[in-house]
Amino acid sequence: MIKRKSFFTLALVMALLLTVTSSRSTLAQSSGKSFKIGVANNFVDSEWRTQMLQDLQDVAKDLKANQGIDVTLDIESKDTDVPGQIKQVQDLLDRGAQAIIIDPGDIKGLNATLEDAVTGGVPVISVDQAIDAKGVVNVVIDQTDWAKISTTWLAEKLNGKGDIVLIEGVPGHPANEARMSGVTSVLAKYPNIKIVGRQAANWDEATGQKVMSTFLTSLPNIDGVWTQDGMAEGVLTALQTAKPKKWPIVSGEARAGYLQQWAAVAKDNPAFTSFGVVNPPGSAGTGLRVAVEMLTGTKIDPSALKGTASNTLFIPIPFTVDSTNFDAQYAFVKDLPASYVLDGILTADQVKQLMAGKLTIDEPTASTPEPMAAATMAATAAK
Question: Which of 35, 80, 119, 311 has the fewest CB atoms within 10 Å distance of its CB?
Answer without folding.
Answer: 119
